[in-house]
Predict the structure.
Amino acid sequence: LELAKRSFAVAAAFGLAASLSVVVLGDESGYMASLNQKMKIAAIEAMWHTQPAPASFTVVGIPDMQTHETDDAIHVPWVLGLIATRSINEPVEGIDNLVSEAELRIKSGMIAYGAMETLRQHPNDATARAAFNAHVHDLGYALLLKRYTPTVTNAGEDQIAAAALDTIPPVLPLFFGFRLMVLLGFYFIALFGTMFALASRRELERRRWLLQICLWSLPLPWIAAELGWVVAEVGRQPWVIEGVLPTALAASSVTGLQVLGSLTGFVVFYSILAVV
């Protein structure tokens, strides 16, 4: 019993320190994402329109994918602006504004793509080289058109608009997944803080209900971690490398049947090993 009490005290102290450190790491991640993955931040917030600086944080709401509004939203003023920009005068761009920017970058990338095709045939073409160098930073956006046309340079306005809309990641799983992850984070701080306070006063054994809560909370850190991966991986769609390489061009050519066959083989093989 004494060993268990000491173990709880150590675990409570470590858990509290770890939970608080996640707040710091999450804040830093939010700031870095606002610099490099603006659409992810906008989708996590279901922020359809650019707000005046500093932007507010949406605690809860119901994103409407048709009207591009978040119904029944509860906002906390300034919080998102402070986290995302570290300032009170820089705006956080909304989804619709970023889509408009994506259209311009796709058109710029089309120029780079056309110049690249010319340089493949005529490597010494100075005009093509100058055009390529001027627009190469948007070349990845032109590659989004590969889903709609093999001849990127001849894409129509409707295809450009469709490719620009593809830059919006799935909003609903990001919006709710992020909030559940944050809620679990605050729950861990409260739980470990309570455990630490009781362990310090040597009162843990008088709180059987709290020990039961700890037991039932065991799966929650894994759920929070998986939600973090969902936010990270879904949030960066449609990019494998933001603004450079679309996921559609980086995905493996292996078929679903091949994946199923190899997975079945591994399951059978390791099941035999387990029996042996």
Summary: The two ends are 39 Å apart (CA to CA).
